[in-house]
Amino acid sequence: MSTAELRYANQFEIIRSEEKDRYLISQLSQQLDELYTKLFGLNNFHIYQPYLHRLSELLYYLTTTLSNRQTIGEEYVCLIQYDPITKRIPSLMRRLFMIFFRIFGDLISKYFLTTFLIRPIAEDFFHPKLSLQTIELITRFIITSIERTHKISFYLTGYYYNISKILTRIRYLIYSRSTSESIEIQSNMNKTIKLLSLCLCIQHIIETYTSLKQVALSISQHRNQLNLIAEEEKEKEKKIVSEDITSSTDYVRCPLCYELAISNVALVPECGHVFCWQCIHTWVAENQTCPLCKTNTTQSRIVHLINY
Quick check: 168 and 90 in contact, CB under 8 A? Predict the structure, then answer.
């Protein structure tokens, strides 16, 4: 004895539908790739390939979901999109938003996370010049963590397979007949789903720990690079200051030995010329004149300048 009923689709039925759609989108994407290479060659193909894949998704859902038709996967499993709020098929605008978020949601979330969350936190706690590689790593970690958490939630509840369906509140209905055999199968499936959810939780914890280590390592390396740059800038400033000091004391460079006479300066009072104390004493002992202007002087007349 069996009874027909219209019920919410379970996890495995939704996954079968999604896998079928994903396969067809990949086939369409390959055809677009071949068309692009035939028209434009392989130049810059690696740049435009991700956009071609998004274009294939957009074309697929425009010709199915937005045209008020089932996708191939939904038709394969006999799924019907359902709006629990209005209790009818989702409106055109709701389906349009669902397609938009499904295809471009990662780009939008990446932009908002980077602009309004990661950069302000970096300016407050890390460094305003946080490297683009580190920002990309943090953004990918946050987005990946949200996706993994949502996947675990889907396997536990069976509500929404894709985050875009959470935002638009679109679920799946399926028409089926309940028998004692189907009830037993459903019970076994529930046990399998619980085991799978546990495995996903363990995987999520391990991958989160690994990703956090990578983020911490990237931030540490970036800080070390900034410290090295700061030290190099300080060394340059010290060098500039020392060069300025040197240039400002050129007038006390000894004309005899061509060394700076900073702490041991001697003055010939008759003419005012400055020399090293040792150099001028040695010269005057032999010549009794100033080495520059030949003005007569003696060793006793030489003045030792302190703190010149």
Answer: yes
How many residues belong to the chain?
A: 308
Domains of the chain: 3-233 (no CATH), 252-305 (3.30.40.10)
DSSP letter at 260?
B
CA 81-84-87 angle, 5° bins:
85
Nearest 10 degrees: Cα torsion 211, 213, 215, 217: -150
For 296, the 3-state DSSP assignment is strand
Mean pLDDT: which of 190-199, 217-226, 255-264 is highest?
190-199
Indicate if the pLDDT at residue 87 is higher than 80.
Answer: yes
171 - beta bridge partners?
82
Tell me, letter by letter, the H, E, C secondary structure of 20-39: HHHHHHHHHHHHHHHHHHHH
Q: In 3D, which of 39, 38, 58, 60 has the Cα closest to residue 50? A: 58
Please state, in angstroms and rounded to a whole number, the distance separating the CA atoms of residues 32 and 52.
Answer: 7
Q: In this structure, what token pair is assigned to residue 33?
A: 């790739």
Q: Name the least confident of 90-99, 199-208, 255-264, 281-290.
A: 255-264
